[in-house]
Amino acid sequence: MGVATLRDILTADDRVREGDPALWEKLDRNRVRCYACGHCCPIPEGQPGVCKVRFNHGGTLYVPWGYVAGVQCDPIEKKPFFHAHPGALAYSFGMLGCDLHCAYCQNWVTSQALRDPNAVSPPLEADPELLIKDALAQGAKVVVSTYNEPLITSEWAVAVFRQARQAGLLTAFVSNGNGTPQVLEYLHPWIDLYKVDLKSFDDRHYRQLGGRLQPILDTIRSLHRMGVWLEIVTLLIPGFNDSDDELRKLTAFVAGVSRDIPWHVTAFHQDYKMTSPADTRPEDLLRAAAIGREAGLRYIYAGNFSGQVQGLEDTHCHQCGEMLIQRYGYSIEKYNLTPQGDCPACHAPVPGRWSKKFGGQIAASPFLPRRHPQLVKILSQP
Fold first, then answer.
1. Mean pLDDT (whole number) for 64-84
2. What's the mean pLDDT in 208-230?
3. Start-end of H helices in the chain
4. 137 in Cβ contact with 85 (< 8 Å)
5. CA distance 256 to 55
6. Which pLDDT value is given to residue 3?
7. Are 218 and 178 in contact (CB under 8 A)?
8. What is the Cα–Cα distance from 149 to 319, expressed in whole angstroms?
9. pLDDT value, residue 381
10. pLDDT value for 2
11. Which among 261, 2, 38 is positioned nearest to 151, based on CA atoms?
């Protein structure tokens, strides 16, 4: 018997399911159209979509199922969510594949696993019920689909989220935001928090990454309209997306959707295939933050330079300036919100998803959950 490839393993009967009818339709000549991401791929018989993991077999769309590429327990601040249950633990899981191919991807081992032969991340058997049992055993409050692009594995995420909701847990996506109306409506009943990477405000730049700008902007507007708690991250890359003009357009767009959307501007470091731009400096983040303030954004955070960004890790009241949450990296050092999520000094409401009381810092750094043999088993390649 020949050596099984990763694609062989991921397309085996027990690793796939028929896609949800809400996320695909039949076309002529045995083709299907997928609506899980903004590419809306028309997929010929026997072929995958751009993501490499959703594929057409016999005129039916099949999608990933029954595995994870890994699980990890993170402080929720790592996602990053700064206005959702500070100090809580996020039980993070992911699958394989992505609909973009960013040259600087920090999760390329999972996201590019079927596109780059150097990206090898053996999948692990998983079951939604056992994943949630493990999340509860770790003390998690939120279950997050991340590491790959979760939109392209939405059916699996919803299966896990159904179990999470039954257990009283919150749910979240960490995503590039390249959505469609169909996939957002499909996710809406099952998702509480959503982080979108707004990677640029130039369509030419998005096309270099394998996508388009417009679907991401549409996703941001839709999530806000739906009432899903939304935070936006822009990785600031020198020479790519850091011009004053582009940052003005980007922050003006976000403020036009809502001035209350937290915007995280984070520092790039050389990774994967992008090794030519210089790493972002703290002063670059401060310049971007100043542009965001001019646009009217009320909650701006700078990431990846703990203690070097002039308080841009902290949450202040937009009305009176009171320190509400003081952070250092992923750690919560002070928490001053009222049980209602208001400023204690001027009583202005602070937008977000807050607990009635601060539950303390469960973990200040990521860690791997304790392994349970009944939860995961490495799928070996014979």
1. 93
2. 97
3. 6-10, 108-111, 128-138, 154-166, 181-187, 203-208, 213-226, 244-257, 282-295
4. no
5. 38
6. 40
7. no
8. 36
9. 42
10. 36
11. 38
Is residue 81 within 8 Å of 172, Cβ to Cβ? yes
d(CA 341, CA 354): 6
Q: Determine the topology of domain 67-335 in CATH.
A: TIM Barrel (3.20.20)
Question: How far apart are the C-alpha atoms of 84 and 231, rounded to whole Å?
Answer: 10
Q: How far is it, in rounded angstroms, from Cα 233 to Cα 256?
A: 16
137 within 8 A of 166, measured Cβ to Cβ? no
Q: Which tokens go with 251?
A: 């922050």
Q: What are the distances in angstroms from CA 331 to CA 228, 263, 306, 341?
A: 25, 19, 10, 19
Beta strands across the sheet bearing 42-43 = 24-26, 32-34, 42-43
Q: Give domain limits for the chain.
A: 6-64, 67-335
Look at residue 67 in the predicted model and tell me its pLDDT.
92
Listed in sequence order, the residues at least 6 apart from 8 whose beta carbon sits closer than 8 Å to its beta carbon are: none
Taking the whole predicted model, whether its pTM rises above 0.90 is answered as yes
3-state secondary structure of 18: strand
Distance between CA atoms of residues 138 and 372, nearest Å:
12
Bond before 80 cis per omega within 30 degrees: yes
Give pLDDT, residue 376: 52
Tell me how far apart the alpha carbons of residues 211 and 218 are, in angstroms, rounded to a whole number: 13
Q: Which amino acid is residue 152, in one-letter code?
A: I
> What angle do the packed helices 213-226 and 244-257 form, to 10 degrees?
30
SS3 311: coil
**Radius of gyration of the CA atoms of the chain, in A:** 21
- Alpha-carbon distance values, 97 to 50, 101, 112, 120, 213 (Å): 9, 10, 6, 11, 20
Residue 1 has pLDDT above 50, yes or no: no
Residue 9 φ/ψ, nearest 5 degrees: -65, -45
Burial of 198 (0-12, 13-18, 19+ CB in 10 A): buried
Residue 98 has a CB neighbour count (10 Å cut-off) of: 29
Q: How far is the C-alpha of 224 from the C-alpha of 217, rounded, in Å?
A: 11
Taking the mean position of all CA atoms in its chain, how far away is CA 294? 27
How many other CB atoms sit within 10 Å of the CB of residue 211?
25
State the chain's maximal CA–CA distance in angstroms: 71
